[in-house]
Amino acid sequence: MSSDASAHRQVSPTAQKEYNPRLLWPDMIKTPSNPWTFTCKEIIEKLGTNPQAIAELKRNMEKCLIYFYTVKKVLNLFDHTYTASCILFFRYWYVYGLPPYLPDCIHIAQAILVTACKTVENNRPIDAYVKATCDYFVKDTSGTRARQNLDKLKWDVRDRLVTNEKRILCSFGFDLNLENPKELIEEMFSGYYRFNRDYNFPEEFKNVFPKILQEARNFIVQAVTQPVSLLCDGYTFVALALIYCGFQYKKSVDDSFHFPVNFFKNTFPILVTSQRFEEIFTDYRMLEENFFDLKSNKREKLHISATDIDSLIQEEPGEVHNPYDYNLIKSGEVRQELKDHINKRIKEIYERTISETRKRTSPENSIDSDHGSKRVKT
User: PANTHER family attached here (predicted)?
Assistant: First the structure.
């Protein structure tokens, strides 16, 4: 028996060489990947054919989108949390539809918002979600009846959140790969790439691009209120925003403006052609016409032709490469300009912290606080 045990304990050199931890200890949950983009025709057909039912569905959807925006402001959430919520919401609607009653839709929206907050690491305590949702119910839906049963409403909202959050995760098949365009645009044009990849842009473009980039951020936050995220992936969404904002700048400010040669080829892992993006702008316009009539709608501004786009971009034909491949950055080598920029930012933060600390601990503030405490005691 001891010989059998020792035989089991002995591992041959061949077995050691073939050891693969991923085979013997596989991930408990494999990260799934599902197709989340569809044609404009498929998205519009999901609304159905009954005009009355379509109007009610769009009203409920719009209330859910208003809920996301309201809670974002109340809980001071990031813009990319709001965009993540909208992306998940439209995915859920496309695959599973929405309940016929507005309160049930809001409960689903709450679970989607919490899932988005956790996905982008912008979470809040559960009580904060419950309170914000109850306030929304009282203000916009249930009215006097909800005010009279507020405690009961809070427990109901809390219980539904716990149940629906699990259901939402299972409904998505644990696929939370958002390709959030608001996050992507911040990563793609962060300080790292600004100093290591984009340093050789023409000076004139460097001066103008931050304005276009800010407008593109605003475009993304506004555009996610329509189901554009079902039309294109995250990188295509970012390219759409830059082309739109670049063209508006060209029309209103500088008719000679254009992006540098191979700008999109060097900064995007997708193929950017004028014909393809003309079709996307057309589809976007059709989604606006068939879904929500909002103040943020672009309407006739989305009439951007392939000729207009050709006057804006200068892309040479060739194979598309992923500029964000890990192998390209794993060496950790950066230009001195980035190091200087980081040092400058650290000094600014340090000096600001010291200044704020001195203000809080100054004798004048301590005297004021003493007087205030005396007045309170009196």
Answer: CYCLIN
Rounded to whole angstroms, how far apart are CA atoms 362 and 135?
40
Give strand pairing partners of 261.
314
pTM: 0.83
Please provide the DSSP assignment of 70-139 as one string.
Answer: HHHHHTT--HHHHHHHHHHHHHHHHHH---SSHHHHHHHHHHHHHHHHHHTT----HHHHHHHHHHHHHH
The answer as to CATH 1.10.1740 being correct for domain 40-171 is: no
Q: Where are the alpha helices (DSSP H) in 253-335?
A: 263-267, 274-290, 306-310, 326-329
d(CA 82, CA 182): 9
Band of pLDDT at residue 51, cut at 50, 70 and 90 = very high
Judge whether residue 12 has pLDDT over 70.
no
pLDDT at 378: 39
What distance in Å separates the CA atoms of residue 272 and residue 286, rounded to the nearest whole number? 21
Tokens of 60: 């409920």
Residue 314, strand partner residues: 261
**What is the domain partition of the chain in residue ranges?**
40-171, 181-322
Residue with tokens 């559960």: 126
Within 10 angstroms of residue 268's Cβ, the number of other Cβ atoms is 22
